[in-house]
Amino acid sequence: MKAITVSLLAAAGILSAGAVQADEALAKSKNCMTCHQVAKKVVGPAYKDVAAKYAGKGAEATLAEKIIKGGKGNWGAVPMPPNPKVTPEEAQKLVKWILSQK
Q1: Angle 2-29/88-99 helices, nearest 10 degrees?
Q2: Rounded CA gap, 24 and 26, in Å?
Q3: pLDDT at 20
Q4: What is the CATH number of the domain that holds 9?
Q5: In this structure, what are the phi and psi dihedrals at residue 40, rounded to the nearest 5 degrees?
Q6: pLDDT tens digits for 39-90?
């Protein structure tokens, strides 16, 4: 029984790791990684900093909208340009991935 539980937990870990990699791939394919990195500030804030700032604040819808429409003033003088190539569903996936980068 213990071996089955361990096997199921290992499989769940592999599946969730695949989802994380897929969302990072989505970020790369939508050119998000041009201005953002996971752990360090580039042009825009690091995703770890975004996750820390918005943790537990119910900001998913707001962040998804900013991904699509752009934003300014939250992280300094450089505005984030709109990304109309990102669908609302993709924006939600990206936000979930970003907020998981703690």
Answers
A1: 120
A2: 5
A3: 54
A4: 1.10.760.10
A5: -140, 150
A6: 999 999 999 999 999 998 999 999 999 999 999 999 999 999 999 999 999 9
Q: Which residues neighbour 70 within 8 Å (Cβ) at sequence distance 6 or greater?
A: 79, 80, 81, 82, 83
What's the CA gap between 9 and 95, in Å, rounded?
A: 25
Q: Is 71 helix (H, G, I), strand (E, B) or coil?
A: strand
Query: Measured between alpha carbons, how far is 15 from 51 in angstroms, rounded to an integer?
Result: 22
State the total domains in the chain. Answer: 1
Which residues span the domain enclosing 69?
2-99
Sign of CA dihedral 50, 56, 57, 60: positive
Return the residue matching tokens 């900001």: 59
d(CA 79, CA 69): 11
Asked if residue 29 lies in contact with residue 93, where contact means CB atoms within 8 angstroms, the answer is: no
The model's pLDDT over 26-53, given as tens digits with 9 standing for 90+, comes to: 999 999 999 999 999 999 999 999 999 9
